[in-house]
Design brief:
homodimer, about 425 residues, alpha+beta, BirA Bifunctional Protein, domain 2, Rossmann fold, five-stranded mixed barrel, five-stranded mixed beta sheet, 11 helices
Chain lengths: ~425, ~425
């Protein structure tokens, strides 16, 4: 993509009320735009990141048997009445009304509508297990929203709901999706900072599990055993739990962390009140055993920025970067410009994703500052000086200095 | 995809209150699920259709310079106050409130937020033209919603907004996107029934233009000149307009139609009140000249069903079908089953999209009825009889009878 055709621009400053690093950098670089507190437009470069993260998640969900669908934002009160419609139970509902004054809700999750819908499709043990999932926008009426895209009033997530015959079948899937989650956080570049964390369970399970990424801006406190690669959320940090998990206080480190994913055994919590049952192989009616599994996609994007950015801007891992290469043309010399244009076309022909800074009237310093702020993995400079030195200057975003490569060397390095 | 792993099932009947053909078939076939009137969950097969239509639209939008982004659902009152916040102006707003009692709206369109946002990015004539677009969910609080997914309270659309230096630049783009829209409706199989239609304009243009698909279930009345391939919407059907367009009443046919797309010259309607201006080449401030261009994606899906379905079910054009081939295995014979499994794997290896009806315990009649209802372009039967006759029976959805082909013949026909 030519930077000259991109309507967004880098900014010197984020809005004054924006205190989080992720929002500051993402706004300044033109990835997102703030509509109101906790509500951000995803700009073209940001959408590319959201799509890359979403597709990494989709691949892992499909691999464990997930089937993608798209549930609705508008929610029927009837479906929720038996469980969580009351604002005393769920305080961050957004609600609105139809013209005939019927109250409706805006989706903050989908356990209830999924369970109600599945009554149409699940009747026999032959219909189980099934794993529908959603990649969609979620709405939560947060009292405060000060963490940028790490806690939005409107945000993207992936949510999968599992419907199993019984606890044994459920537990097998729970193991599989735990591994799928680990693959996802490894793939997006947060694997070494993300810990499998024990958190509060419910009626049907001792614990739920969170994936917590160690990060100063995190709103959670966890107690981390680095050697065992597990952690305990503050909410269940007590002697009984530590004993149960065979952990010693002295081996644990208190750190701030961001909950980037969670997995939850729901058991019959929703299938019982909403009467989702099936006939087992013996012809006896049983309730379906459920689980739910979330990943905040925009939160993950914000966490990647928080954890990996440096003083100059964002540092995207290659797996989620909007473009692999930021090709920077310096100067107005026609010969240099032609070389840059050729290189741009050759990279595209090799299916390399390139952002081409073809803007005129900017200094080398301005272009380099923008490249650092935008954070593509590779900066590739074409200038009179680079051509005289025998080619193009390539520099990884995290390296201090670049080096000159020929086009052949470049292609074998990049594509 | 194996049909046995798909959690949806076909149904004998749609909900009793569902009167439209599109919703009846789409619900019975398991493409959508009704949450409430005008609000439908998009099930896995339906999501594939939505994605195919969306990608056809994206390709055409990108080709005319469109850049995709993702705007927000939650809308700030401040942005809309100067134009259309009042329910007297827009009667189908959904509105809700933040915890601090601030009123906010749910997106029914995005001219205002787009215009407000562009003030951050458009300053000079060098920044123009730009063409951001959205593929997203839209919310409209319709009094009645009885046309299935052709008029939803929550629905998918594509909306592009054009920002041009002046009317001349705008008109050039308007021509281009008109052609892009024609390409889209051709591509999804509605080209021969979709007419460029003159409708009411605004302060800055005599007419807007709609793309109307002739269809009995359509809510609009248009006056059609088949020879000239244009139509006039009832709302501007009068002597003056007919004279202006050089049309004679006697050559026009009154028909019902569905508005599947519209294009609109907005001029300064939003840039003036929201103060979106730029410095022209002479250094003089001018307002940006705008346009907007919508296509209802779920409406288009519904219209395809309405227009092309027959008495047995849906008939998808290949371009939007969830799968190209519906592979139907008949009987429980192991040898036949193995042949079908091999064929399934071979088709996938050739990148053919296949839905494999591997369900057991259903009669041939039941499987054929489901295949007709689901509407894939090709039905491919593997049975003892087909193997004895020398191969597999292939039948186009619209053909009465199939014919036997060998695997080689099949592959050259299909892939």
């Amino acid at each position: 993509m030519r930077q000259s055709t991109l309507f967004t621009k880098t900014r010197k400053n984020a809005p004054a009320d924006e205190t989080s690093k992720n929002a500051e950098y993402l706004i300044r670089a033109g990835y997102i735009y703030k509509e109101m507190s906790g509500v951000y437009t995803i700009l073209p470069l940001g959408l590319k990141v959201v799509q890359k993260i979403s597709n990494i998640i989709r691949n892992e969900m499909n691999a464990v048997g997930g089937v993608e669908m798209q549930s609705t934002t508008l929610q029927s009160k009837e479906v929720w009445d038996k469980t969580r419609w009351s604002d005393d139970v769920v305080e961050n509902w957004f609600k609105t009304k139809l013209k005939n004054d019927t109250e409706i809700g805006l989706a903050f999750t989908h356990e209830e509508p999924m369970t109600a819908m599945m009554k149409n499709f699940i009747h026999s043990y032959k219909d189980l297990p099934v794993y529908p999932y959603d990649v969609r926008t979620i709405f939560r009426n947060e009292m405060r929203a000060k963490s940028g895209i790490m806690r939005g009033r409107e945000f993207f997530w992936k949510a999968l709901y599992s419907f199993s015959k019984n606890k044994v079948e459920h537990d097998e899937f729970y193991e599989k999706i735990t591994q799928a989650y680990k693959n996802i956080f490894n793939h997006v570049g947060l694997g070494d900072k993300t810990y499998f964390t024990f958190a509060s369970g419910g009626t049907f399970s001792k614990y739920s599990h969170e994936f917590q990424t160690v990060c100063n801006a995190g709103e959670d406190l966890i107690y981390l055993n680095e050697e065992k690669c597990i952690a305990v959320n503050k909410e269940v940090y007590n002697d009984e739990v530590l004993k149960d998990l065979d952990l010693n206080k002295s081996d644990l480190k208190e750190v701030n962390a961001v909950e980037v994913g969670n997995i939850f055994s729901l058991g019959y919590k929703f299938s019982e009140p909403l009467e989702l049952n099936y006939k087992n192989a013996e012809g006896v009616e049983e309730f379906v055993f459920m689980g739910s599994y979330g990943i905040g996609i925009t939160r993950l994007m914000g966490t990647i920025v928080e954890v990996l950015a440096d003083g100059k801007g964002i540092v995207w891992p290659e797996s989620v970067a909007p473009f692999k290469v930021h090709l920077v043309l310096l100067g107005e010399d026609v010969e240099v410009k032609n070389k840059a244009e050729d290189l741009y076309n050759n990279l595209i022909a090799k299916n390399v994703e390139v952002l081409f800074d073809d803007r005129v009237g900017l200094s080398a310093g301005e272009k380099f500052a923008d490249a650092d702020l935008l954070g593509m993995p590779w900066r590739l400079v074409v200038s009179k000086r680079s051509l005289e030195a025998g080619g193009f200057e390539i520099k990884a975003r995290n390296d201090e200095a670049g080096r000159i490569v020929t086009e052949n060397e470049l292609m074998s390095l990049i594509s």
